[in-house]
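RECORD TYPE: inverse folding
INPUT: structure tokens
STRUCTURE:
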């Protein structure tokens, strides 16, 4: 179903701003916009696209925006965002909110039977099969916006899911590929990604390879529990591959530009002209592949461990990672401490196998509080119970 109208949750981030460019190019009506703190950019977007429904995470800015846009609905708070999504006449929700904060809006979009263009991988990481079952129950199609998952989606088109042997998930390797040690890394060093221009959180996740770990969990649920192998592909031209039982491999290639997956999530089943650059194979010359170093980049192995344990463990992995990344960016822990903090939080949790959405929200809160306590006294014993940390 091609998108005709869209609510963009997270419109001021990298994905959101690129999505708006796609909407402008192809005449997709924007009916609602939400942001965290960058309300000035939100106001510019609302004016350009004549949007009357706005949501702002920073409640201090609400009155100012109401004065700038009299007659518009301007709201704040998680419940208000979910209500806006459900009540909007958009046929598509583009969920580009960073972190587990994108889970409730995704659920709101699904239960109101909107097509879900999902750029928020944490929704699937935290709630996994619950989200897939909820989408099926409501007749909602989830179109992945991540370049890797969009690539897998495209490689599966026209083929039977049961014939898949494995999924080959490519990774750039981040800025520290080949580096002997991960000591003495500053936030500004980790934010220098070699190929992609992304937000701070995802860029740090790419540097630790946690982003690839989260993508493994997401792909597992999105594409029917298939075996997944990660390959480091430095050029970021092959965005992922699918190998079939006859050993034929389908790959999706393109420049490292999010325009293609964002656009496809909204224009499918049609392919339309885009502003993404073309691949010049002669100039490119070669494509390289390496096995990831899961011992050095522990976050990738922790993600596989969380997936193997199952239940609520991936939610704990994600929640602890969000806190660890923020602590690193604030200079409160070192780069090598990120996987240590995550692993300690995972070790303190007993996974709930038969979980509900309420369990997911509760466990996410517990994991974040536990990880914060570890940051405060990192290296010390932290034995608080879930009840004490709530």
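DESIGNED SEQUENCE:
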């Amino acid at each position: 179903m091609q998108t005709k109208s869209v609510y963009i949750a997270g419109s001021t981030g990298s994905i959101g701003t690129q999505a708006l460019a796609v909407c402008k190019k192809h005449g997709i009506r924007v009916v609602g916009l939400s942001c965290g703190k960058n309300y000035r950019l939100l106001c510019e977007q609302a004016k350009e696209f004549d949007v009357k429904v706005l949501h702002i995470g920073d409640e201090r800015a609400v009155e100012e925006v109401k004065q700038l846009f009299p007659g518009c609905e301007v709201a704040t708070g998680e419940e208000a965002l979910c209500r806006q999504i459900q009540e909007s006449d958009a046929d598509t929700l583009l969920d580009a909110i960073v972190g587990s904060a994108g889970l409730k809006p995704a659920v709101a979009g699904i239960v109101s039977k909107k097509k879900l263009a999902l750029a928020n991988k944490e929704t699937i990481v935290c709630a996994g099969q619950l989200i897939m079952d909820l989408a099926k129950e409501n007749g909602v199609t989830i179109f992945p916006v991540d370049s890797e998952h969009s690539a897998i989606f495209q490689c599966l088109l026209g083929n039977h899911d049961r014939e898949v042997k494995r999924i080959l998930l490519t990774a750039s390797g981040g800025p520290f590929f080949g580096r002997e040690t991960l000591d003495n890394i500053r936030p500004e060093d980790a934010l220098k990604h070699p190929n992609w221009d992304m937000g701070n959180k995802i860029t740090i996740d790419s540097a630790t390879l946690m982003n690839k770990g989260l993508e493994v969990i997401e792909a597992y649920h999105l594409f029917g529990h298939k075996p997944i192998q990660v390959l480091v592909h430095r050029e970021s031209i092959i965005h992922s591959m699918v190998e079939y039982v006859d050993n034929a491999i389908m790959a999706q290639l393109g420049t490292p530009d999010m325009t293609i997956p964002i656009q496809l999530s909204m224009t499918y089943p049609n392919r339309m002209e885009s502003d993404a650059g073309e691949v010049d194979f002669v100039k490119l010359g070669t494509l390289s592949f390496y096995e990831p170093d899961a011992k050095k980049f522990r976050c990738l192995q922790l993600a596989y461990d969380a997936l193997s344990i199952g239940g609520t463990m991936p939610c704990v992995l994600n929640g602890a990672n969000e806190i660890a990344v923020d602590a690193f960016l604030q200079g409160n822990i070192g780069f090598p401490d990120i996987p240590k903090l995550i692993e300690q939080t995972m070790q303190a949790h007993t996974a709930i196998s038969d979980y509900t959405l309420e369990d997911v929200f509760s466990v996410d809160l517990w994991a974040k509080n536990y990880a914060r306590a570890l940051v405060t006294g990192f290296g010390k014993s932290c034995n608080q119970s879930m009840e004490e940390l709530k």
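NOTES: The radius of gyration is 20 Å.
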